[in-house]
Amino acid sequence: MTSPLNAPAAEGRWTPRLWGTLLVLCAAMFLDALDVSMVGVALPSIGSDLHLSTSTLQWIVSGYILGYGGLLLLGGRTADLLGRRQVFLVALGVFALASLLGGLVDSGPLLIASRFIKGLSAAFTAPAGLSIITTTFPEGPLRNRALSIYTTCAATGFSMGLVLSGLLTEASWRFTMLLPAPIALIALLVGLKLLPRSSRERDHNGYDIPGAILGTASMLLLVFTVVEAPQVGWASARTLLSFLAVAVLLTVFVQVERRSPGPLIRLGVLRSGNQVRAQLGAIAFFGSYVGFQFLTTLYMQSLLGWSALHTALAFLPAGALVAVSSTKVGAIVDRFGTPRLIAAGFAFMVVGYALFLRVDLSPAYAAAILPSMLLIGAACALVFPSLNIQATNGVDDHEQGMVSGLLNTSVQVGGAIFLAIVTAVVTAGAPAHATPQAVLDSYRPGFLVVAFVALAGLLITLTGLRTRHPQQTVVIAKSTASETSLETSPETSLEAERVPAGD
After folding, report:
1. Could you give the CA distance from residue 113 to residue 280 in angstroms, rounded to a whole number?
2. Closest CA to 118 of 64, 198, 183, 49
3. Which of 22, 23, 112, 410 is 20 to 30 Å from the Cα of 55, by its Cα?
4. 3-state DSSP call for residue 495?
5. How many CB atoms lie within 10 A of CB 68?
6. What is the number of other CB atoms lying within 10 angstroms of the CB of residue 58?
């Protein structure tokens, strides 16, 4: 069921309430991204103040990733079943409380627990917020514009997190934990007034409890295994057995979903080539960028001796370019289509990463670093909104939360996997005698991995350009017992699944 807010949107006019709704959702997405990047710069101060070891400090970051990446599938389907507005507001309230807790605790385990709770909350706000947008704005130019603004807020939050963390940590690391709390509280209060009420899906087949347990367990174990692998060893018995357990859980999960009358993920959505390319593109996009940011931050602070604020300002041109382009991307998508923009964005990323391989121990920022930052910023501006548009186009309202959860899971899992791989590559090449030049040389294979991941994303996207058709909806029919049917034969009752043409 679509929102009453659809009426003004459908006519091309955005009312103040519609703008307010979008801003509330953007605020939550901004906070999710802000929280991912902001804590990194504060880690040394946190470790010194709370007397935490390096391995414990890692879990301040990993705890958030574990909660976020592990529960996104459940969060997306919960939004469909229990109501998007309800799930979004409750999770946003929990996020605000966890932010307050994180800024007040004096214990490492409690801080890690607050970070896990924040990640868990984001796992529900992210897919619920995205599905509210896709069910409020009709598919086409208006939704494309809304999604371009929404995803730009995520990219801007990720970039600004570095700058804000550099500033706030100068006073106290606790401010980096506390900052999201008042913003989340304001968004919650405004959301109570503005967010459209959504009906719960009438699921006559009941809840897919086995699928929820298996899906959540497999994602939690996958993220945990990848995060821990660089420390315990990729070839260790623990890591190999964990990956084997993930494979078993996912195999059983797929079998359960194929037989469930009300699955957590309806596997039929993956019959769309555009959908598969969007998911794989999200993995490659965020995986390559997180790896690049991690290595570049180490390079700037450890080798060049730049301060946290100086490092953050070096990334600022990329974030600024994303922010400036926010209102333009939707119109570009309308004109050229998502596959072309995603391909162009990945091409920019590949060139930007390749150019960064030229850096040395005394780089001229304007010549050696700035071109890469501008190319990567342009890539983020094109790719991230286009992936969200491509993944949600042609999907029925009652499955928007599910697809949103799936896309966000791809983003987070891609980031966790490739960050761990890049870390392992750099660690394996770490020199015995750590001269600055030797350390820089050990970083280069990691930058090459980042570039190859982006290249893989480009190649995957190019497979969608082989046949270009006008954007329109076609029908893939699937058997169901639902009340809505498509008459294709006198004997069979079918439900129409809409997917973009060309697949």
Report:
1. 31
2. 64
3. 410
4. strand
5. 30
6. 17
Instruction: Tell me which H or E stretch contains 108.
Output: helix 108-136
The predicted structure's pLDDT at residue 207:
64
How far apart (Å, rounded) are the C-alpha atoms in residues 99 and 184?
Answer: 9
Q: Report residue 260 as tokens.
A: 């469930």
| Contact status, residue 192 vs residue 27, Cβ threshold 8 Å | no
Phi first, then psi: give them for residue 495, nearest 5 degrees.
-110, 135
Per the confidence metrics, is the pTM higher than 0.85? no
- Side-chain half-sphere of 311: how many Cα atoms within 13 Å? 24
- φ/ψ of 359, rounded to 5, equals -65, 150
DSSP labels for 10-60? HTT---HHHHHHHHHHHHHHHHHHHHHHHHHHHHHHHHHHHT--HHHHHHH
Q: What is the DSSP letter of 365?
A: I
Does pLDDT of 353 surpass 60?
yes
Alpha-carbon distance 213 to 249, whole Å? 10
Q: Kindly state the DSSP code that residue 418 receives in the 8-state scheme.
A: H
- Is the pLDDT reported for residue 439 higher than 80? yes
Dihedral angle of Cα 129, 133, 134, 136, to the nearest 10 degrees: 130
- Coil, helix or strand at residue 450: helix
CB 261 within 8 A of CB 205: yes
Pairing of strands 473-479, 492-500: antiparallel
Closest CA to 125 of 87, 154, 171, 81: 87
DSSP state of 196: P
Identity at 128, one-letter amino acid code: A
**H/E stretch holding 493:** strand 492-500
* H/E run at residue 488: strand 486-489
Q: What is the rounded distance in angstroms from the CA atom of residue 343 to the CA atom of residue 420? A: 25
pLDDT digits (tens, 9 = 90+) for 408-425: 888 888 888 888 888 888
Give CA–CA dist 236/358, Å, rounded. 35
What was the pLDDT predicted at 198? 65
Question: Encoding tokens for residue 433?
Answer: 């005698």
Per domain, the residue ranges of the chain are 6-197+264-468, 470-503
**pLDDT score, position 482:** 36
Gyration radius (Cα) of the chain, Å: 22
Q: Give the pLDDT confidence score for residue 498 in this predicted structure.
A: 42
Q: How far is CA 191 from CA 31, 196, 207, in A?
A: 15, 9, 27
Rounded CA-CA distance 65/172 in Å is 23
Given CATH 1.20.1250.20, say whether it is the number of domain 6-197+264-468: yes
